[in-house]
Amino acid sequence: MSLVLPLPVGRRFARLQTLRLPLALLVPMALINLIAFVLPVARLVQISFLEGHGGVLTDTATIANYLGFLTDSYYLGLIGNSIMLAAIVTVTTLIAAYPIAMFLHTVSPRWRNVLFVITISPLLVSAVVRTYGWMILLGDQGLVNDALIGLGLISEPVRLINNTLGVVVGLVEVLMPYMALSLIAGFGRLDPALEEAAASLGASRIRRFIRVTLPLTAPGIALGSLLCFVLSISSFVTPKLLGGGRVFLLATEIYDQAVVQLEWPMAATTSVVVLVLFGCALVFYTRLVRRFD
Amino acid sequence: MVGSSSTIGFRFLVGALYFFLLAPILVVLPLSFASDTMIVFPPSGWSLRWYEAMFRHEGLMKAFRVSLMLAAVVTVVSLGAGLPAAYALKRYTFTGRDALTNLFTAPLLLPSIVLGLSILLVFVKLNLLGTFPGLVVAHLVITTPYVVRIMSTALSTLPPSVEEAATMLGAPPFKVFCRVTLPLMMPGLIASAALAFLLSFDEVVISLFITGPRISTLPVEIFNYVESKTDPLIAAVSVVLVAATLAVVLLVERSIGFSKAMVK
Amino acid sequence: MMALAERAKPAAAPALQPNGHLKLEGVTKRFNDVLAVTGVDLELPRGKMLGLLGPSGCGKTTTLRMIAGLLPISDGRILVDGEDIAHLPPHCRDFGLVFQNYALFPHLTVAQNVAFGLDMRRIPKAEARERVRAALELVHLPGFGDRKPRQMSGGQQQRVALARAVVVRPRVLLLDEPLSNLDAKLRDEMRAEIREIQQRLGITTVLVTHDQVEALTMCDLVGVMSQGRLEQLGTPEDIYERPASLFVADFVGRTNALDCTLVDARHVRIGEAVYGCAPTTLPAGKVKAVIRPHRILLTPPRDRALISNATNCAAGRVTRVVYVGDLLQYEVDIGGTRLAVEAPTRALSQPMAIGDKLLCEWSPDDMLVFPA
User: Fold this and answer.
1) pLDDT averaged over every residue in chain A
2) Architecture field, domain B40-263
3) Neighbour-count burial of C347, counting CB atoms closer than 10 A to its CB (0-12 exposed, 13-18 middle, 19+ buried)
4) By residue range, what is the domain housing residue A21?
5) CB distance from B213 to chain A under 8 Å?
6) How many domains does chain A have?
7) Is residue A235 one of the residues assigned to a domain?
8) Containing structural domain, residue C205
């Protein structure tokens, strides 16, 4: 009938009240993080400074990998390719997703929820499946070519996959939901009263867009662009499948070096380069945001 | 907004963009029923041969079972590791709490290709390559941050005073957790579980580094198949995958709605 | 320790009368290097209600949480019926706690909320049901058992929280600013109800509040706290009439605190005039004299002769008049010093106006002296 417990339990509790319990709760998560994240990343950086071939590593520390990387025009070409592809994809995705975000901003809440779900639903589908879908659509005997031939615009199929164009199209579609999410969040801070005020002051639709809507949604644009850029640079599945082995990027090179050629130090070096590019994009983004805040 | 949504032109543009967005997912459905042996669109005839081929394909079926089992194990372990961690991070204060929170979320910031390579390099020494436990650990690193984030958010909506009230009424800490904390966190729990499951089931890049001849997952097998062959088999697989994902999402939505109704 | 184990046996079961005689000895709480509560000593007789009163940050809630066991104490002892309970975890102390935000379980019905503590004590279902029903009646919410907390108003939720805490017949009941979240009218009602319930059940209770009206009207004992220290512990009358420090005098009730010089044990000088004060042992020098505004009587100058020499009298001019309905609040300038004076509205034949010359009179015993 009573709550009072015998003394030993009381003492046990006093110990619990100290740091022991939270520490115990954190151990499983910390273990996973250590084994699968901290250790691997540390090892990655370490290996980039080692020598080795064919899956065998030596213990000699060297910066030869980096030197080789930065002096080889092939690798520099990879960097250029990756950055340019990411830039093109980012701009295109922005242009494609912006109208969707704007539309969502203007419709009734009921429709907005439905459309929002539809907009992010592709994220639930594996990237492989979506890329495969593009292979179907863009292939020589795919939907687009058939339609173009049927309309009489071309007589022979146009090469739409196994090249950079296919990769761009695929990446844009894959990344649109991410961009749309950022833009929608950015639009959420746009007060409709501001546009009405601009209209009442005599601004035309285009003027309103350039002077009111665009600047106010800029944070969403910046974040979405950062996200897309970063995801494009590190994207692997879509470029590999839609590029057909003919599009050479940092990500595809890492996989090739690691799994096919077993040149692990070079793969590690390339990975570090990707991380550095990541960091640069992030720094650029924070500088930009700070300037406009 | 003033007038811009009402133009037909704009609506048409948005419609076209949505069509573009959903096209690759929608197109696999008709293709899966094609009778052609190559990827031809639109198909010249209709048949169920590719569904039959899928069920008869041993490699794919085995990989499917592995993926299912893997996702289930990963989900359970993610919750088992992420839930206590979220509780510790949210309900206790200690030095380094913020740093630890950031550390737990950091794996999401790394590109999966880099993470995959890094894990490969460590698993080589640990003899975890091409093993089921290895895959579990690799998947855990991308599912657990989400579990921690979602459960942390769920916990922050639960005022500590409610748990304290239960304590004062005589409930020992474990009973407080079972009778008060857990029921109130149920929607978050279901959402994290579903997300962890889907993330693991669809995971391809990191798995590419760890799978091998001894063990493979469905996304990896699909990837390999698509790279080498050009028939519509994968369309059938894709349809099944998308349907299964939809089923999971609907199930989750129902159970979250149900558990939210319990709280209300 | 034996006594604790013995209490576990149901033989002690005329626990219909909750037995909690609460004593705090030198209770202190340190957060890193900051002292949140310093050396609190108090003793609360069985069945009485103590109000811990003070401004935000004074340590009253910290003290309450230490009594509850939700916060470990850094130093000192907490005794119930002579036994130190500091080692007991909160779920073993058999105390009830009513939170400021009610903290009802949102996923349970009102009846399930109230029954929670009984469930933890493994009370049989039939008895529990009856006790829940009785508790809900006690707080004037009969038949509300099947509702969910979110369907109820703040005041109703507060009552459920109270029912939930008392249904288990705790040894001590703790109330953490239970009325802060209610609107003024509801607060008045609940004050009376809580006091009535507490007295009817005879539970030893500690109430934490920043509202002095609550403390003075509801409690048998009041402890005024400031910056972690217990400034004074006494009956409401003690606290109000005989404040032990300037802080208490200032915090409880409205007051005038005048800078003056102590001339001798019974006289102070304010400006040019000398007035009588309550006897004090302070050394001569700069002090603060305190008089309550309603202890000052306003008299028209023509009645000067009627005032005895034993009464303090100061000539002044009205500088402000505020009408508060049942009171008139005046500000009177007596030769450079401003006095706040209060008078009930019906007592004056006509209210004073700004600029009126009049006399302020008050008894020396009403003027308390504190260190400056």
Assistant:
1) 84
2) Orthogonal Bundle (1.10)
3) exposed
4) 7-61
5) no
6) 2
7) yes
8) 17-248
- Alpha-carbon span A250 to B77, nearest angstrom: 33
CA-CA distances (angstroms) from residue C14 to A257, B169, C33, C204? 81, 20, 45, 17
List residues of chain B with CB under 8 Å from any CB of chain C.
159, 161-162, 164-173, 175, 179-180, 183-184, 262-264
Tally of CB atoms within 10 A around C335: 12
Task: Give the burial string for B23-37 (b: 16+ CB within 10 Å, else e).
Answer: bbbebbebbbbbebe
Residue A2 domain-assigned (yes or no) = no
- Closest Cβ opposite residue B170 in set C68, C99, C121: C121
Strand order in the sheet with C297-299: C297-299, C357-362, C312-323, C327-334, C337-344
Rg (CA), chain A: 26
Q: Which of C181, C214, C248 is a domain's end point? A: C248
Which of C19, C81, C85, C87 best tests the A interface by mutation, with the highest count of A CBs <10 A? Answer: C87
Q: Please, what is the average pLDDT of chain B?
A: 88
**B42 upstream amide cis, omega within 30 of 0:** yes
**Can you give the residue ranges of every domain in chain B?**
40-263
| B114: nearest Cα among A273, A149, C118 | A273
**How far, rounded to the nearest angstrom, does the alpha carbon of residue C287 sit from its chain's CA centroid?**
27
Nearest-Cα distance to chain A for B251, in Å, is 14
Which of C204, C227, C248 is the C-terminal boundary of a domain? C248
Q: C205 in helix, strand or coil?
A: strand
Tokens of B41: 């669109």
Same domain, A149 and A234: yes
A57 and A153 together in one domain: no
Give the distance, in angstroms, between the CA of residue C189 and the centroid of all CA atoms in the same chain. 17
- Please indicate whether, in this complex, the C-beta atoms of A237 and B223 are within 8 angstroms of each other: yes
pLDDT band at B178 (very low <50, low <70, confident <90, very high): very high
pTM above 0.95, yes or no: no
The better pLDDT of the pair C111, A194 is held by C111
